[in-house]
Each structure stands twice: as C-alpha cells, then as structure tokens.
Amino acid sequence: MSASVPRERASRKGQFSCNFCRARKLRCDRPLPCTSCRSRGKTCEFNPTPSTLKSQQPRTPISTGQSPQILLPQVDQSPFLKVTSPPVSFPQTTAPTHVDLLAEIQALRKITQDLEQRVVQNSNSQQLHENGNHIFISEADSNPKYGLPTPVSSHGQVSEIVSHLQLVSMSQISQRLVGVDDIVFKIEHIRAIPQAPTFIAQLGKPTACVWLPTHAEAKVLLAHYIASISCIQHIIHQPSMSAVINDAYKQIEGQQALKPGHIIMLLSIIASATHVWVCCEDGKSDGALFLSSAQAHAQTSMWIKASHTVLNAAQNNSAIELETIQGIAILGCVVCNIEGVSLRYRSLLSTAMLLGREFGLHRIDQKSTAKGAVTLRTEMSRRVWWYLVATDWLMAARFGGSGEGVYQTHPHHMTVNKPCNINDSDIVDTEPLRSAPLDQPTDVSYFLQRLRLAEISRSIVDHNLINATSSNRPSYYAHIMAMDFELDLMIQNVPSFFNLDNYIGRSQTDGTGTIFIQAYMLNSMMHLQRCKLHLAYLTSGPSDNPAYAASRDACLKSAHQIIRAESQLLQSGHPFIQIRLRLAAILYGIFMASIVLLMDACLHRPATLEQEISSGDLAEALRMIRDVKSHSLAAATLHESLMQIVARYRTQQRLPAIGSPEHLETQLPPTPSSGSARPTSDYLDWGGDTGVLTGTFGNGVDQQANGLDDSIFLDQVQWDDLFTGLASSSFF
C-alpha cells in the first residue's frame, strides 16, 4: 500500500470528549456540559470527527431499504450541544415504504422524549404541588398523550410531534423567577398585622413576608364575606370553603408546599370582608375582630397588596388553579369598589380571563375535555367563566373611556354551558346535576338573571358598533328602541321573587332577606342599563324629533325606579343598608339617576326646580350622594358639581340665592345613613389617581352664580362633563 494514502487506525474508538477537553487533553465527564468547561466558564461543544460519524452510522439506522438517508445526532447528548451534521443526501431511489416511515416516526418520538427529559433537568419548567412534595414535570409528563412510547399507527402523528417540540422550545425561561416558595407566610392576630414587617431577612437577603390572620379569625372573615357579598357574586362553593381554609392553614403551619390558589383566594376574601365590615352597635363585644368599622376598612389596602404579592409570584412558575381565578375575580370587585373602573381593575379582569383561557375554562364543555370531568369542579368552572364574561359585557355597555364598546370574549370563541339553576348543597360529585326551573329560587337565580342582562348589553354594544357611522339615521334609533324592548321585557318577566313590588311593607326577617337584596341589585342594574341606553335623547327639546319623547320617558322612568328602590331598601331596615354605599355598582346607579333627574328638571321644568330639590325623587337622590361623600371622592366631586348647576339655574330663573351649599343641604332631611360632609382619606395611599378636589364646600353658591356669564342659556350646560368625570373617577 502506498505511504501517501492516509489510513485511519481500525482500533481507534469514537470521540467521547468535548472539543475543549480534546484540545487540552483533559478527562471529560459526560453528559455535557462537562465539569471542566463549567469550572472554566467555557462553552461545552461537541463536534465529532468524520471517522466518529462514520462509525456511528451503522448503529443508528433510521430507515431500511431504498429510503432517503437522513442522519440524526445521538439522542443521549445534552440540549446545549451544537451538532454539526453532514449534508443530507437524497439518492434517486424509489419512494419509502410504509414500514420505513413508521420507523422514522418512532425514532422522532424517541428523540422527543429524550429532549424533554433534558429540558426538565436544566430548567424550572413547571412546578406542581402534590401531597406536600415539590414535583418538577414537563408539559409532556402532565399530558398522557406524550407519555410512554405508544405504537405509531400513522405517519400523521409527525405533526403532533412537531407541535409538541414547539411547546417544549417555548417553555424555557432565561432566568430564575421569584415564586411562591420565595415568600414567607406567617400568622398573627389581625389587629397586629398592620404593624408587622412586610420583608424579613432570610439567608442574607430580604424576603417578602405575607401575614395571615389566625385560623379562627379567618373563619369569621369568611362567614362575613358569605353573609354580605357572596350572594351577589356567587363564584365560590360555600360548603367547600371551610375545607379550603383549613387546607391553607395546615400547609402554612406544617411548613408544607403551598397551593398558591388557596392563598390568593383567602387573601381576596379577607380584603373583601374588611372593606364591607360592619361592627355591632357597641363595637366592643368579646371576640370582635375590629374595634370599629373604620379600623377594618383601613386594612383593606394592605390585604389588596398582599394578594398582589402572592399573585405575581404564583404567575411566574406555578400551575394555574381554579382558586387563583376565583381569587382574582373577588379581588377585582374590591378594587372596583374602592377605585371605580380604574386601570388596575380592568387589568385584574383581563388577567382573570387570560388565566381562565389558559386553564381551559372557555372550552370546558367540549366533547374532548368534558369526558370524566368532576361534577362540582366543572360546575364551579362554568360559574367562574360566565361571571367574568358577564362582567366584561356589562362593562363594555355601561362605562365610557377607552374601553367603551369593547369586550374581550365572543360567544363563538367559547364552548361553555351556562350554570345550572341549583343550590350549592345539591351539587354532589357522584350524582348528575338536576337544574331547577328558572321560576324557582336557588343560589344561582340572581347569577343567571345577571347573565341574561349581560347578553342584552352585548347586543347593545354590537349594534352600536355596526351603526356607529349612522347615528343620525332612523335605523339607529330603531335599534335603540329594539334594545329597549328587550330590557323592558326582562324587567316585566323577571321571576316573581325578584319583583320589588312583592316586598313592599314586608319584613325581611322571614328568611327572604338574601333574595330581597338580590332583587334590589337586579332592579338597579336593569334600570341603570336602560338609563344609559336612552341618555343621549334625554335633552331633546320640542323642536327635535317627537319620537324621541319615548326615550326620554323611558330614561326618566328608570331613574325614578332606581331612587325608589333605594328608598324601599332604607325602609326595610335590612343590614345591607350599612354596606350598600361601599359598592361601586350601587353608587353608579345612584349617580346616574341623580344626573338624569336634575338634567330633566333644569331643561324641561326650570320653574319647578326649587320645589323638586326640596322634595321628591330628585331631593332623595341628592341626599344619597351627600351621604356617601364621607368615603367617596367621586360622590363629593359630583355633589359639588350638581350644587353649582343648581346655583346657575337659580340665577337664570331669578330665584333667591342660598348662602352656601351647606345651607342648601340643611333643606334636605337627613337619612339614617348620613355621614360627614368631608371625604376621608382611608384609601389615598392606595395608588391611582386620587382626583383631588379643587375648591371648597365653604364657597357660597351665590358667589359661584355671580361669577357665571349671564348670557349662558339653559341648553349650554356641559352635561357630558359630569359623565366623563364620573366614568374616569379613580375612587368610588
């Protein structure tokens, strides 16, 4: 043999060291990245020599016969390797057989499984909590479709493998994120928690610390939430909540792995309970959690911040839980009651809907996902999803700003049955659900009526978008009247137990107190939507289209009904009276009714304005707004604006001027819930735009009126400014 012809040694083994170890002649431990490269900060690469590849080819056959020769890297290498494969050759041969394709698919499946195992070893992909132990699994391990090797029956599964590889590639994170395990949870008496530190030193670095009330105090707060608020939300299963609370405290006290969803829901319930907390008359009974209602209200912002802390940590690397979405929905209601329809509230609503989609709530009743579902879990998932969807639709139809006329979920984008009309106590996992007729009161009756109203609101939004360019055409007004017909039909056909007329002169101590509150809330929501629908036609004068008179009458009728429902609630003596003005939905209805009644009086009956602000529904509406000024900056601002408008119209009508707004308020008889005339600052430290008032209530209305231009006519008052300020107010 000629010496010029190079010949490789037949006994030489393949390459088993990385490039760096081969160059430095170091011992390379496998798998890569090796210890030598890690200790020196080198990139561990493995580029096999041509002889190594040649020696490996017979050991890794992909296909047999005349099929294309596709060379794949070894499957036992690290995902960080940079493999340089030789060019793929495609000899002109016959088409591969079915057996060859199946063999290639099986090889791809094996590579996929090996890749997943290496991904789990090198990243914090997903953390699950089971029996108090931390279990790190990949997306494939949680999906039985990608579990153990299964026989390949068709080459169409290649697309499934490719799709799963994309999921694996997108599941990586570039750095370690803060999780729930990086938060310290401690227990303390609820009165001492405001003075407790929010950060503690742990392992030489500051660590967030979330404090929880004692187990007994948490049960009291849960009971208060269920009695006060749950009847108008009803997104939790009340019989199961005690077990959830017990489980959360067992995890904390036993230093076990926490379920973030349980903690988030617990903190949200505490925030909601403190916001609407009402003490007894003495306020100092044994076992009372708070000395006064003000002390409880002052803690609300603290619990909101704690909920945000755990929520942000849980979203980083924890599996999504239904309790997490429930907690966000409850927390959003608390934020809305404090801040109004603020950016923070809309963000929470969007987050809940996003997590709901990730959790699969929007397709829970698809055939592929409904099989084998647990009855209780499935039914609660339906309630949570439809609650979020209904809130989204109601928001789009009621409130102005950038979100007006925009909702996030369309019926065509979800497959979810509506919740059954059933009591919580009747839901049993081992038995099928039996929905009661709609005319039979259950725990979900109000929920279903609210959902029906939301569907009408979505129809209003859809038609408004279609007719946005034709607002002056008859077709647009025909749409308004069609939607009014739907609203009026719902008002007339509500179940009898939701008809407020059936509760006139009736005591609420006969077991119907909860249904009465639901009837009151539903009445306010329906008539508020009707006022909003016809508001643009309220200022139509005699020279305008006479057909608009029907809109004006409908708007005024609904405004009067809102105020009369408030008066009926006050006369009932129900405990809900003490918390109703802390709920944004009720406040917005009162605000809307007062503006509508004052607009109509000033524009159409200016001569009787003095009489109407002294007695009647308008006077009652002004009293209600005055009562809520003590803890609502929006109410204080609106009340001042309304008083200025009254002063302006008095001047134009040559009426005797009153010395000051305080003097005007003395003409209005006080209501049982009258409070201070000066707004407090309980929540001024809780983010957002405070909407600080300009001017004081001490300025005389006659001085304000004298400063106005005498040439202002009745129809030149900027009524829209009242609604703009009301919709954009950061605090309710």
Automatic annotation (TrEMBL):
Q: Name one GO cellular component term.
A: nucleus
Provide the GO biological process annotations.
DNA-templated transcription
Looking up InterPro entries in the UniProt record yields:
Sec_Metabolite_Reg (IPR050613), XnlR_reg_dom (IPR007219), Zn2-C6_fun-type_DNA-bd_sf (IPR036864), Zn2Cys6_DnaBD (IPR001138)
- SUPFAM superfamilies (UniProt xref): Zn2/Cys6 DNA-binding domain
Where composition is biased (Polar residues), the residues are: 46-67
Q: Which SMART domains match?
A: GAL4
PROSITE patterns in the cross-refs: ZN2_CY6_FUNGAL_1, ZN2_CY6_FUNGAL_2
Q: What compartments host this protein?
A: Nucleus
Cite the Pfam families for this sequence. Fungal_trans, Zn_clus
Tell me the segments the record calls region Disordered. Answer: 45-67, 660-681
| One Gene Ontology MF term | zinc ion binding
The entry's keywords: Metal-binding, Nucleus
Taking every annotated instance into account, which residue ranges of this chain make up the domain Zn(2)-C6 fungal-type?
A: 17-46
What name goes with this protein? Zn(2)-C6 fungal-type domain-containing protein
Q: Which organism is it from?
A: Ophiobolus disseminans
